[in-house]
Every structure is written in C-alpha cells, then in structure tokens.
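Researcher: Sequence recovery benchmark, item below. Answer with residues only.
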C-alpha cells in the first residue's frame, strides 16, 4: 500500500522531468512537434533512472514565469511614452476616486499605466471578483457620493458579466463610466483566447441601455470621447456610458502626427429646466386645486432637492407621496403622506416618476377571466396631471423601462430639481388671496392624519414582535435601535422587509436612503451596498444594509472586496431562506389554476427555497475576512448582537449578522 502511494504521488521534480519537462525542452531546442509528441510519455522507470536532474533549466524557469503569449523569447523594452499613460492623464482630470474592476488582458496596457504611472490614486484600483459586482459598486457609490466611478471590463466576456448591473444603473438613472478592453485589429490581436474575447463592436452588448458609447481610434479621439462620456453621463437624466478601448491603442507609444495631444476641459452642463409657460400653467393648477398631491420618485438628486421639495409642499400645504427611488422628502415631515391620498386628488404633480401609469392606475396581476390582469383607476375622471421628468429626453426603443403610456395634461421634459425654484416662485405668486385660509386648514388636517398614520404603522410593526423566525419589523427596528445616534446611511434594503425602514425610520437626509436597484435585477444589494459604504467611509458616515439571502448569493465575492479594501459596512441579513418573491408568484398561479402548490416536502417550495442545506452566511462572510454572527433565531439576541457588530464596523471592519426572518 505504502509503495503504491509512493508511485501515485507526483512530486514536482518528477513532474517537471516528465511530460511537461520534455515538451518545454523540446520547444526550447526547436524540436519538431512530432518529435515532442513522441518523447512526451516516458515510462516511470525511465524518469526514475534519470534522477537526480539539474535543479531548474533556464527554459523551465522562463516557461514558469512567462505570460500566456510570451513564449521564451526575450521581450524588447518599449520606447517612448505609452498611449495608456496619456489615457491616465485624461482620466485624472475628472476626479474619479476609485476603479472597481476584475482584471483582464484586453486592458492590461491601461491597468499597468494606472498603477505604475498613475500611482494607483485617483482612481485607486479595487479588486473585484465579478464584473457585475464592480459595476454595481459604482452604482451604489454614486448614490452616496454624487460622483461617478470608472469600471474596466474585459470585452467580450467581462462586459457580458457586467450587463445586468449596467441595466440597473440605466433604469435607476445613475452614471457609470464603463471602459471595455478589446483587441480590435485582427491583424495584430493575439490568437486564441484574446481573439475569442474580441468583437467588432463590444458596445453593442450595452448600447440599448447606455446613454452614449464610442470606440476611439486615436489617443486624441480617446481624450475627446472620455471627457464627452463623462459629461453625458453627468447631465441629468444621468446614465451609464461605455467606451471600447482598443488594446493596441493602449499599448502603442504616442505618435503625435504633427498635432500635440490635448485634454478637453470638463465643464458641468446645466440641467434642462421646464418651459416657463408650462411652469406657470402647472403653478396655476396647483394653486387653485382643492386637493393637490405631489408624488416624487427620483426628484431629489441631492440634499438641495429635499429642501426645494419641502418648500413646494409647504407653499401649497399639499401632501407628498414619496415613492422612494431616492430620499426625496423627510419622512418626519407632517406633509409626508401614504399613497392613498392620490385617490382624493384633483391635481397631481409627478416629479421624476419611473411609472406614472402605475401611480394613477392599479393593476391586478392575474386578474380577469383570462388571467391577463385587470386595471382600475386610482384617480377621479377629471383629475389633472402634471409631470416633470428628464427621462423624457432619453428614451430608447428596445428595453421597456419607459413603462405604460400615460396621458398627462402638462408634461415637461425637464429636470425636476432644476425646475423647482421657478415652480415654487410661480406657485407662491399664483395662490389667490382668498384661498390662503383654506390652504392653511388643509395643512392642519394633513398634520393630524400624519400622526395617526404613524401610530397605525407602529401598531402594525408590533405584530408578532416575539416570533421566531424573527419578524421583519423587529429586524428593522432592532437595527435602528443600535444606529440611531450615528450619522447613519441605509445603503440598500434587498429582498422585501415590507418597507419597514421607509415607514418607521426618521429618514430626513439624502444619504439616509439611497433607493433600490432601478431595474429590479436581483444581486444589486450586496455590491451596491459595498460601493455606497465606500463613499460613506470617506464622508465619515455609518453604513448599514438589510441584506437578503437570495440577493447575496448571486455574487458573494464582493464580501472579499469589502474586507480587502477596508470598507466598513453593517449587513444585517433578512434570511428568509428562499426567493420568497417567487414563492408567492408560484403560489398565486397555483391558486388561479385551482391546484395545490407543490411544497416539495423537506426541500421546501420547489425551485424557490434556499434550504437543506441551509447556507451558513456567518461562515461565508468570515471566510472572506468579515466579522460575523448568526444565524440568530431568537429575537432577544438580536439587539445585543447588533450592538457588538456596530462597534466592529465603527473600528473600520465590515460585519455581517445572519438573521432567520419571516418571509416578509
Ligand atoms: C437577476 C434576476 N433574476 C431573477 C429575478 C426574479 N426574482 C425577483 S425577486 C427574486 C427573489 C429574490 O430573493 P431574495 O433576494 O432572497 O428576496 P426575498 O424575495 O426572499 O425577500 C427573484 C429570483 C430577478 N428579479 N433578477
Ligand atoms: Mg430571501
């Protein structure tokens, strides 16, 4: 037995002296391929007899250290200035702090320049384990910092991985700068893998959901394209942009062709404002309405947007329904109202609504005799509708993010935040003197309704307070209890915890709530929260996420990125042990078809549960450098555990608590 084991073990010396060793020696000596094949399978005895061998031949050492296409020939040193050094000069003019990316040869020229010439600052490379994670980190970062990041993708395969995250950013109107490496010149590109990874037009993959893309063919072209891409991405409505970067252009040295290279200066664009006549008409309708309602989704792009919305709401003493695409309106404000107020409205103004149709119509999924769904209007027949949305300026054909068509009486293709100052002035001027008392009275009634609504919400949250698995309301409120005295930022809430944070946490500042993914592509929560936590780290804020189980498992490698780059984040898990949204869909359809949903015995609902084996998320996180605890099933353990985790996060480390929760 012992003898057999000795024979089976392949030690390094024998291995090198065997097939690989002969092949490398053959290649180095210029032997014909047929000779190598013939000599490549020596008998074990022959290998033994040949021992001891010289330690490592030069050829073996070169083969071990060589690059995929490097062979063993000496590599001549490049002369002149690398094209990608100039690209770094261009990138550095734009205040891009980080570059989350997964590495690849198609942008090795730029990668090398960024770290050796650019000294890995502005931007700093953050090692990511999936292109989707890198793009979603950029997405989350922007929403907390208000500045875009750059990511590099290996064209084609890396960009294919990144697509869903880019689509989420498109739907969420968030700027990302995506640079895809591509070996464009077929006469020069290395054969084999780099050719598999090349395409005529890698940007075609993302053209339907980026604002703009380009394929620069010279360095001066790159300078123009990059600054233009940044400018387009950062002009509301914000959105992702893509640049395909030829590997040759990165690696060649600078040829100036008689023209000196220059970098165009970036000057931020002023966002489009609503037409003056349309603003006046909107103000007239609002000022004279009995029950005007303000509905907001991505209206506030910054803290200033919140201030302006408060001013508009107070001028009108009108209720504000915040659909939560961003933190638009303080939840603590007496005019903050539930969506039910929409039914009473005679005038509605929608500001940057992703779905105006869905705001004023109710859709009953699987309703009607044929099951195709039914519609019910939420508003009265004569309700006047006003819209301000910059997204009207940016519609594409293929993806249906523009939602169902809604007729609007006063539609403005303009940025809401930029239009609000003029609208507020126009509203103040349009309020008739004899309406002022009625408007004040309306405000008093809304204030009372707000207090009553808060009490009802708290009572609903107390239901099943002591349940195990833990109720989502308790999960959310135990978390809040431990962070309430910090400058907190809820960086994402994946899965569905019945919107308890938005209903119960006193959200007032823009960074208190960053909104969901935009495109509802699951797998956004974990990487976007790491990206946002990075921005919050630099701003001195405390980041917390409610992390769903399904969402985390799409690409959990982002946990490593957070630990590697010292990004403090408290992730409290909503681990309902399943893709519960889909559990409900299958259940609903079974009901419609008058069948009992197959529960799958110990496997749980088939195709939708994540149990047996139960994933140990605490181990998963700690294996990648996180402090972790759980699974917590006893609600009384939750508070003390979160308290410990908060201290860890305050010390600069990420921490994850796995909590077994109710489905919703
Ligand atoms: C990329 C992607 N794949 C599948 C879906 C369909 N889907 C919608 S919600 C959901 C469940 C997500 O599970 P989890 O994050 O655990 O949230 P839960 O519903 O359990 O609260 C899935 C699979 C999707 N939206 N996006
Ligand atoms: Mg789940």
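Model:
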């Amino acid at each position: 037995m012992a003898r057999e084991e000795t024979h089976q073990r392949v030690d390094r010396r024998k291995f090198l002296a065997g097939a690989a060793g002969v092949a490398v020696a053959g290649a180095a000596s210029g032997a014909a391929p047929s000779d190598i094949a013939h000599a490549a399978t020596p008998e074990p005895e022959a290998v033994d007899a040949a021992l001891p061998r010289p330690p490592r031949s030069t050829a073996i050492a070169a083969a071990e250290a060589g690059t995929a296409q490097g062979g063993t020939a000496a590599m001549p040193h490049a002369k002149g200035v690398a094209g990608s050094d100039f690209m770094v000069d261009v990138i550095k003019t734009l205040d891009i702090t980080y570059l989350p990316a997964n590495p690849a040869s198609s942008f090795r020229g730029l990668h090398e320049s960024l770290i050796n010439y650019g000294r890995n600052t502005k931007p700093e490379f953050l090692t990511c384990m999936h292109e989707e994670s890198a793009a979603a980190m950029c997405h989350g970062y922007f929403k907390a910092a208000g500045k875009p990041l750059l990511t590099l993708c290996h064209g084609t395969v890396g960009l294919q991985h990144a697509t869903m995250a880019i689509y989420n950013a498109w739907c969420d109107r968030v700027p990302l700068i995506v640079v895809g490496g591509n070996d464009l010149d077929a006469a020069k590109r290395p054969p084999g893998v780099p050719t598999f990874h090349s395409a005529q037009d890698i940007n075609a993959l993302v053209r339907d959901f980026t604002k703009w893309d380009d394929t620069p063919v010279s360095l001066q072209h790159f300078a123009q394209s990059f600054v233009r891409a940044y400018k387009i991405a950062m002009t509301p409505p914000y959105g992702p942009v893509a640049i395909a970067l030829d590997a040759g252009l990165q690696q060649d040295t600078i040829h100036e062709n008689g023209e000196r290279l220059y970098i165009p200066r970036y000057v931020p664009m002023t966002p489009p404002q609503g037409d003056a006549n349309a603003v006046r008409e909107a103000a007239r309708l609002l000022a004279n309405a009995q029950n005007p309602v303000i509905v907001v989704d991505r209206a506030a792009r910054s803290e200033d947007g919140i201030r302006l919305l408060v001013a508009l709401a107070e001028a009108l003493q009108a209720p504000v329904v915040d659909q939560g695409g961003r933190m638009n309106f303080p939840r603590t404000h007496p005019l903050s109202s539930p969506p039910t107020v929409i039914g009473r409205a005679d005038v509605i103004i929608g500001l940057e609504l992703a779905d105006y149709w869905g705001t004023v119509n109710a859709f009953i999924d699987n309703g009607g005799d044929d099951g195709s769904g039914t519609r019910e209007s939420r508003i009265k027949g004569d309700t006047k509708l006003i819209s301000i949305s910059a997204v009207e300026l940016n519609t594409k054909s293929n993806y249906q993010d523009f939602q169902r068509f809604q007729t609007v009486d006063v539609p403005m293709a303009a940025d809401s935040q930029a239009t609000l100052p003029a609208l507020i002035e126009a509203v103040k001027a349009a309020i008739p003197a004899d309406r002022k008392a009625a408007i004040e009275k309306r405000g008093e009634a809304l204030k009372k309704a707000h207090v009553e609504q808060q009490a009802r919400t708290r009572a609903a949250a107390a239901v099943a307070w002591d349940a195990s698995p833990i109720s989502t309301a308790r999960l959310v409120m135990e978390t809040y209890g431990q962070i309430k005295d910090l400058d907190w930022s809820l960086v994402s809430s994946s899965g569905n915890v019945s919107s308890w944070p938005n209903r119960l946490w006193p959200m007032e500042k823009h960074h208190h709530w960053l909104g969901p993914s935009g495109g509802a592509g699951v797998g956004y929560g974990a990487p976007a929260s790491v990206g946002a936590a990075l921005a919050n780290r630099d701003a001195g804020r405390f980041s917390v996420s409610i992390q769903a189980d399904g969402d985390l498992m799409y690409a959990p490698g982002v946990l490593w990125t957070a630990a590697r780059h010292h990004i403090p984040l408290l992730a409290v898990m909503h681990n309902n042990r399943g893709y519960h949204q889909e559990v409900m869909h299958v259940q609903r359809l079974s009901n419609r078809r008058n069948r009992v949903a197959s529960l799958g015995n110990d496997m749980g609902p088939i195709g939708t549960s994540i149990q047996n084996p139960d994933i140990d998320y605490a181990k998963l996180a700690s294996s990648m450098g996180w402090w972790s605890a759980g699974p917590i099933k006893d609600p009384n353990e939750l508070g003390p555990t979160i308290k410990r985790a908060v201290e860890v996060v305050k010390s600069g480390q990420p921490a994850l608590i796995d909590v077994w929760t109710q489905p919703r």
